[in-house]
Structure formats: C-alpha cells, structure tokens
Amino acid sequence: MTPADDSTDEDRHWSLESLNKAYQQGYMAGLTGQPQHQQPYPAEVQAAAWEAGWDDGNEQFKQHQRRSA
C-alpha cells in the first residue's frame, strides 16, 4: 500500500479553486484574530491551505496590533 492509498476521498478530490478558498478563509480567520484550532477542513490538503492562509493573516494581525500599540 502506498501513502496515496491511505488518503481519504476528500484528500483526493480537491481543486485549485477549493485550495484558494481554504487559503482565503484561513487568511481572514488569522487577520481577524481567530484561533488556529478553529480550522474547519477534515481533508489534509485543504487543512494545510487553510493553515497557510491563517499564518499569513495572523502575521498581518500581529503587525497591525504592534503598530496600534
């Protein structure tokens, strides 16, 4: 069995559009200071896209807080 055989159907059926949507949702969550543990995606690939967006948005959130202080 290869690692690809272990993935769920959700991991196999993603598109660039769905990854972009997950990234944008994560970015907005990070930008608004929402906690990372609220990541909503069960599929590993989409979860990673959401988390990447959250990281980028949260960095912007932190920068804004530092400038406002």
TrEMBL record:
Keywords, comma-separated and alphabetical: Cytoplasm, Translation regulation
Highest taxon in the source lineage: Bacteria
GO terms for biological process, alphabetical: regulation of translation
Pfam families in the cross-refs: RMF (PF04957)
Protein name: Ribosome modulation factor
